[in-house]
Design goal:
35% of the residues lie in helices and 17% in strands. The chain is of the alpha+beta class. The termini are far apart. The structure holds FE2/S2 (inorganic) cluster (2 copies).
Length: 173
């Protein structure tokens, strides 16, 4: 166990903790210490991706999808995290959340936060490097193709994400 002073930004809020166990998984820190239970836990071995959150090293850098079950808070110290709770803007759901609802993309919903955050990172990536419309399906597969949904909502998840990509200016060329 290595004790650290933790300094994170999570959903635009500064989070400081003195002398905390740096080997704690981000998933445990979010769910148990901060009560942010929107991020789920399942396999715990970096396979299913239900625990996915967005991470960036410095402000304005690109968002990367990481698995919170397998990433320690020590590794993330000094950086920024966005979890599903950080997606809405004010009282407005994020377009991805609206699209998931409009497309009945999820059933039990357990996999939805992970898909949302994987898709969120994809939108950020496309805003920096737009792709031809013909390549959207491949880009979506690259972003969320390894996410597991036990309710098998794969087709609707992909459809919902694609609609947002097509409807958002600047993501395609
Ligand atoms: S809980 Fe399955 S990848 Fe993290
Ligand atoms: S909606 Fe139930 S696991 Fe995906």
């Amino acid at each position: 166990m290595s004790m650290i002073d933790l300094d994170l930004t999570i959903n635009n809020q500064k989070v400081h903790r003195k002398k905390i166990d740096g080997s704690k998984w981000l998933n445990d820190f979010l769910r148990e210490d901060l009560g942010l239970t929107g991020t789920k836990f399942c396999c715990g071995i970096s396979v299913c991706r239900v625990c996915t959150v967005a991470w960036r090293r410095v402000p304005d850098s690109h968002w990367e999808a990481i698995r919170s079950c397998s990433t320690t808070i020590e590794y993330l110290n000094g950086t920024e995290i966005k979890s599903v709770e950080g997606l809405p803007e004010g009282n407005e759901l994020h377009p991805l959340q609206k699209s998931f609802l409009d497309n009945f993309a999820f059933q039990c919903g357990y996999s939805a936060p992970g898909f949302l955050m994987g898709a969120y990172c994809l939108l950020d990536k496309l805003s920096r490097s737009p792709v031809p419309k013909a390549d959207i399906d491949a880009a979506i597969e690259d972003a969320v193709g390894e996410h597991i949904c036990r309710c098998t909502g794969y087709v609707r998840y992909r459809r919902a994400i694609k609609q947002v990509v097509l409807a958002t200016p600047g993501l395609t060329v």
